[in-house]
Amino acid sequence: MYKYNLQNLQYVDEIKKGYISLQQATRLIENDEGLSFIDNGKHSLLLGQTSNGSATIKVCSNVGISNKDNFHTAVARIEKLNNLTYKPDMIFDHTPSHNGLILWSEIRKIYNGIIGFCPVLSTANKNNIDKSELLELIDQVCEGGVNLIHIIPTINRDLYNTAKHDRFYPLTSWSGGLLYDDMIANNREQNVVAECFDEILKILKKHNATCDIGIAFRPIRISECLDAAHTTELKEQEYWINKAKQAGVLTIREIGGHIPVHKAKQLSQTIGTHTPSMPLPVSIDSCQGFDHASSIVAMTALGEHCNIAFFNPVTDIEHTGGVPTFAEISAGLKSAITVAHSLDIGNIPQTQELDDIVSDIRQKAQTCVVEYGLFDQTKLDFDKLRKGCNRCGAFCPLIKND
Question: Does the pTM of the predicted model rise above 0.90?
């Protein structure tokens, strides 16, 4: 009798393409050896990398509505994301409820990929989170097509006091702050997610939804990476991750954001590799207006050492206070896809086939200018390719002068 419901595992790309066998993937997931799974029927995803078989690294796009007037703008962005030839593997809705405007259901109407959702944002009312309302919402969204639920059961008074002692700001996690405020205002022994964790797991198990164990005391600056609060919470996550897995709920974990390159290996050693992770990283704090480059560096370092499920793209204006345009979102998405593919080549040698095809086209057509590639595999037209390019002209070293 299998622990997990893996009925739709057969539909993941890695198995259909022969990168890993169905039997091997099943065994690695069941034995807690570094792989996880998100069930979405014929659009399901395999997650994680192990020495015995790997999935490709996936990329997520984060969306949300800051006020009710932005609802139609957000829907239009989701339509644009869905129409990209390099569309994300998951769209994560971080929207709090605004007068009954529900973004996740609009995403499902447009997009057939994985949808992630943070229910705490939609149930918090000032300093109060109603437990019954939280459970009802999780059940509702999973019934409606959400595949991954982000929750943070780790928050407690001791962790907060540790962070408060060492940091100027203890935490900046939006949902984490709401959970902490509710815990204090209502004099709870545990935060509300921890209080009803078993009930949440029953709902996720019923819908075969995947659990994302979040982190509230993530580093706010690179000097806080693996400080006492961060390290303690990463270890605290293990309790909840194991509890979810024992209940037969597939799981991934969040690991933090501001992570310098030289601490990537230590971070991996702290958390191990049995549960795929989802970072939203930057490697330095001082490159405002160019944060997507800092993120590329951090993602590469983490991908070399950690077991990555998803990369969350960071746009170039992450710390400028601006709302990113679609062009900036697209550039961030391309950056994350580039890093993911670069790492995939090391994990799954067959993924280099695309790069070999592009190189062959360049050589056979005697030009380095081709549209076919990672971001568009539909535009290959030899008849439209011309030798050389405007930069090199007739002196292009790819042009043969037989």
Answer: yes
